[in-house]
Design goal:
binds flavin-adenine dinucleotide
């Protein structure tokens, strides 16, 4: 394990202050549980300044999934970030923006 992680485990008393070969099976099991059921509580966000993708937007039920034309307003198209589609980070938002842009571009 990384040294800083072990130090944190030690500081939070998740591991007893002894050598590994002195740990009992119960202590090893407890350590196993602690590490594998690791819980993280974010203490906040950096806000809109560093936001990379937005939630909400134009309801996709109102759009053609093939052309991205608004069902109630022919000739009007919505694509990309302005629609209510949120991808995981890692390129999915770009992929979606480019793909629906291409799809809509074939029709508009
Ligand atoms: C810091 C950051 C990092 C990101 N990293 C990733 C990533 O790694 N992978 C990923 O998949 N996604 C990432 N995203 C999200 C991704 O950039 C967006 O989902 C994607 O660019 C949306 O494309 P879009 O064309 O719909 O909108 P945008 O790229 O926002 O384009 C909208 C365009 O419209 C223009 N515009 C706005 N108003 C008007 C107006 N009135 N008249 C004319 N033009 C106007 C704007 O200037 C802009 O050029 C990131 C976003 C941010 C902010």
């Amino acid at each position: 394990l990384p040294k800083r992680f072990v130090e944190m485990l030690h500081d939070t008393k998740a591991i007893p202050d002894c050598n590994v070969n002195q740990l009992s099976h119960a202590q090893i099991d407890a350590l196993h549980d602690y590490v594998h059921n690791w819980q993280i509580k974010p203490n906040g966000t950096e806000g809109y300044r560093t936001a990379e993708v937005t939630l909400g937007g134009v309801d996709t039920d109102e759009l053609s999934s093939k052309t991205f034309e608004a069902k109630k307003s022919p000739g009007l198209y919505f694509i990309g970030e302005v629609t209510d589609v949120t991808g995981w980070l890692g390129g999915y938002n770009f992929q979606y923006a480019w793909s629906c842009g291409f799809a809509a571009g074939q029709y508009c």
